[in-house]
Amino acid sequence: MSNGTAQHNHSTAVTVEDLRTRRDELKLLREVRELEYQEIARSQSLTAESLHGYMDYTNYVDPREWLTDSFGQPLGAMLGMAATDAREDGRDRPVIETEQDLTDMRSIARVMVKLNPYLTGVLDDLTNYVIGTGFTYTAMGRSKRNANPQLVSIVQDLLDEFEDLNKWSGNLEREIFQRGTRDGEAPLRLHHVGYGQVKSRIVEPEYITEPRGMVRELEEYVAFHHPHLLNWDSEPSSWSFGVHTPERDIEDHLGYFAEWNASGSDWEYICASDMVFIKSNTDRNVKRGLSDFYPVEGFSDRAMKLARNIASGATVQAAIAFIEQYETGVTGSQIVSMNEAVKSYTRSERKPGGGIKFNNVSHLDEATKLDMPNGRSFIAGPMGQSSAPLYLEVLQALLRAIGTRFSMPEYMVSGDASNGNYASSVEAGTPFVKACEAKQFFYSSHFKDMMWRVIRFGFAAGRFKGYANSFQEIKRQIEIDVAAPDIEVRDPHIATQRRAILFGKGILSAKTWAAQEGEDYEQELENIRADKKDNFEPVPNIISGSSVAVPAALGAPDMELGNASAPTAGSPAETPVASPALESIAKTIIGDIFSEAYP
Fold first, then answer.
1. The predicted structure's pLDDT at residue 270
2. Could you tell me if 110 and 224 lie in one domain?
3. Cβ distance 259 to 267 under 8 Å?
4. Are residues 404 and 301 in the same domain?
5. What residues make up the domain containing 232?
6. At the top level of its lineage, which domain of life is listed (predicted)?
7. CB-side neighbour CA atoms (13 Å) of 313
8. Mean pLDDT score of the chain, rounded to an integer?
9. What is the model's pLDDT at position 80?
10. Of the candidates 446, 470, 489, which is a domain's last residue?
11. Computed from CA positions of residues 12, 15, 19, 24, in that sequence, does the dihedral angle turn out positive or negative?
């Protein structure tokens, strides 16, 4: 038994050499793990730094900033802006030379609009003034064409169906305008889903890209499926920036190449007839658009930094009420004695390293007068200094530069209404109103073009069978009126009288009039027909030799066109007398509109 035990102990004995080897292995393992921990910590630090820089858009640097340094100097001639190849293949050198340039500028604009409250406000204000609650689309017969009323009705039905299906008016319209302003582009894809019904979908600008390594195969595909687009044997194509055009006619958009995933495996060729491509801020022979905010990126960046620093500094400075300064030679015991004399109470707090710290607190009531003893003087706090107004003036100058880009008065950018008058800034003829009207015309022309494409889909689906033999016949008889909301401030009574005169002259339709007044035309006609069941009484002498029935509860309209005077119980009704001009307006309003309501 003892021999077996001894033998077992001998076989399991660990030598000193084994222990040393094991120690070295553990030491090496610990060093490896320490290096791993250091690498992890370094990676985390780099990640945090990268994320911080990514989220802070003010750290972005425009790589083209140097281009604006020396225009008119020898360097300016080296930029290539006037070279023969500056606009080659739809480029706009040196600003737009590659798709990466567009991506960078769009990315910066998107981040700034989301994080910079000044630019967010600018975009919202522009949208509210230019688009407002939405445009109005009205089908009407062309003058002297004797359009079939049924044809007009079918066109209007298609327009209304498109608006309802796509939540268009005042909804998708606003998004398209905001995207076009922010990105410089707003591509809108049209999908015919049957029976003239058309769905619209926004295509992200970055999805439209130049085909990579497959131009020949793509041209064979397009030539097979769309042989009418181009004379493929004699006319070479250009595919730069994802826009398919003839090589020598960059303005003629034939189609667009879209990649729906990052790998490029899911792609589609979209004919120009199925895409409304809205671009702005570049010339026609430049294939892609440029953000409205690109010229003011630097100003908005500096304005945001300055406003943030002013706010941060003011927050710190506001916490310092005043400073007590002791003269040279005042001892510590004297300082303690002075503080004891003015303290209201003592507050204790724990120190981070342990122990308790006592602080004297002095409570000053309103309008307290301070008596400074010998050896101590009073110095106003930082908020009492006069440097802050200088920074605010610089901030206002930066914001004015941003406002100039959009013809906006300063208060619309800064929010400071003390140096601006709202009514005068939105009167007819002011720069801001003219700029907004120009944008309304720009977008209404694109929207009208889109609506005609919707009508074409309806014609192809057979919606006009029996009423039109060709799409061109529809366009010859019908026109689409796109009415934008009013921008300038107007006296509502004067505006109504003006519209009444235009309506009486046959210049303005009743439906457009109702839209400009902010009323739903069809709904108001239904309401008027419903009022037919109420008790009506004639109002004499408004129109010479005739009388018109109006609801008794409303009373007789007075001569100001819009103020109803309710009859007083027990008093005889007075007979109003109208001037010839007001008779004409009243006849227009009551005679024509009521006759339409009561056929």
1. 95
2. no
3. yes
4. yes
5. 185-290
6. Bacteria
7. 14
8. 79
9. 55
10. 489
11. negative
The top-scoring range by mean pLDDT among 177-181, 325-329, 370-374, 486-490 is 177-181
Same domain, 112 and 125: yes
Residue 32 lies inside a defined structural domain of this protein: no
The residue with tokens 């796109």 is 482
Indicate whether 540 and 406 sit together in one domain: no
Q: What mean pLDDT comes out for the span 38-45?
A: 75
Residue of higher predicted confidence among 405 and 4 = 405
Could you tell me which residue, 171 or 59, shows the higher pLDDT? Answer: 171
Residue at which a domain ends, from 460, 489, 518: 489
For residue 348, tell me if it sits in a domain: no
Question: Which residue has better confidence, 422 or 546?
Answer: 422
* Mean pLDDT, residues 581-585 taken together: 54
Using a 10 angstrom Cβ sphere, with 0-12 exposed, 13-18 middle and 19 or more buried, the burial of residue 180 is buried
- Taking CA 171 as the corner, what is the angle to CA 167 and CA 175, rounded to the nearest 5 degrees? 120
Please indicate whether residue 394 or residue 320 has the higher confidence score (pLDDT).
394
Residues 298 and 400 reside in one and the same domain: yes
Instruction: Give a three-class secondary structure readout of 528-590.
Output: HHHHCCCCEEEEEEEECCEEEEEEHHHCEECCCCCCEECCCCCCCCCCCCCCHHHHHHHHHHH
Predicted TM-score of the model (pTM): 0.68
- Identify which of 264, 201, 209 has the alpha carbon closest to the alpha carbon of residue 239: 209
Looking at residue 61, what is its pLDDT?
57
Q: Single out the residue of 320, 281, 340 nearest to residue 106, CA to CA.
A: 281
Sign of CA pseudo-dihedral 335, 336, 340, 346: positive
What gap in Å lies between CA 202 and CA 208, rounded to an integer?
Answer: 12
- Angle between helical axes of 388-405 and 297-318 (0-180°, round to 10): 150
Q: Both 234 and 279 in a single domain?
A: yes
| Residue 568 structure tokens | 């007083």
DSSP string for residues in 42-102: HHHHHHHHHHHHHH-GGG---TTGGGGS-TTSHHHHHT-TTSTTTTGGG-BTTTBSSHHHH
In this structure, which amino acid lies at residue 598? Y
Residue 121 Cα to chain centre, angstroms: 9
Closest CA to 184 of 67, 57, 277: 277
326 inside domain: no
Number of domains in the chain: 3
Could you tell me if 278 and 201 lie in one domain? yes
Question: Given a cut of 80, is residue 336 above it in pLDDT?
Answer: no
pLDDT of residue 260: 94
The number of beta carbons lying within 10 Å of the beta carbon of residue 410 is 19
Same domain, yes or no: 130 and 218 = no
Mean pLDDT, residues 352-371: 72
Contact 179, 196 (CB under 8 A): no
Residue 95 lies in a domain: no
Mean pLDDT in residue range 195-210:
95
What pLDDT shows up at residue 187? 97
Per-residue pLDDT tens over the stretch 64-119: 565 555 545 544 445 556 678 888 999 998 889 999 999 999 999 999 999 999 99
